[in-house]
């Protein structure tokens, strides 16, 4: 699990003060649900716009995802949440078309594991 990625606070603490000088500190555990958004297209044509396919994560601390061709060949795989796919397989540009994504993601504060399957359109 990468450390420091999308860090989630363990708890939130509040300092309370009341008239007359009384006060207290109250801490509550933070419960957050991991979320992932998958763009549905990208254009790795080196124009600096949408050149990298990258899921968007919120409250995610670990991720595993892979990209497959329409024939089921794995063309990209990572467990590094900071890496995206550049539209290459074995150093060569893949063809325009539809590719398929399988993704699992989560965090240590919520037992929910996100499992997403989707498709992306690669257009050069």
Average pLDDT level? 89
CATH architecture type: Sandwich
Strand order of the largest sheet: 4-11-10-6-7
Query: Which CATH C-level class is it?
Result: Mainly Beta
Q: Low-confidence stretches at least 5 residues in length (pLDDT < 50)?
A: none
Structural class by SSE content:
mainly beta
Count of the domains: 1
- Termini gap: 33 Å
How many strand elements?
A: 11
How many DSSP H or I helices?
Answer: 0
The biggest beta sheet, please? 5 strands, mixed
What percent of the residues sit in helical stretches (DSSP H or I)?
under 10%
Q: Do you know the CATH topology?
A: Immunoglobulin-like
Residue share in β-strands: over 45%
Task: Estimate the global geometry from the Cα principal axes.
Answer: elongated
SSE arrangement, N to C: EEEEEEEEEEE
Radius of gyration: 20 Å
Keywords for this entry:
124 residues; mainly beta; Immunoglobulin-like; five-stranded mixed β-sheet; two-stranded antiparallel ribbon
Please write out the topology:
Blueprint: E1 11-17, E2 23-29, E3 35-37, E4 41-42, E5 56-58, E6 62-68, E7 74-78, E8 88-89, E9 92-93, E10 97-107, E11 110-122
Parallel strand pairs: 4-11
Antiparallel strand pairs: 1-2, 3-5, 6-7, 6-10, 8-9, 10-11
Descriptive overview:
By secondary structure, the protein is an all-beta fold. The protein has a single domain (33-122), classed as Immunoglobulin-like, CATH 2.60.40. The chain is 0% helix and 50% strand. It is built from no helices and eleven strands. The chain has strands at 11-17, 23-29, 35-37, 41-42, 56-58, 62-68, 74-78, 88-89, 92-93, 97-107, 110-122. The strands form four sheets. The chain has a five-stranded mixed beta sheet, with no helix packed on it. A hairpin with a 2-residue loop joins strand 8 (88-89) and strand 9. 17% of the residues are buried. The mean pLDDT is 89.
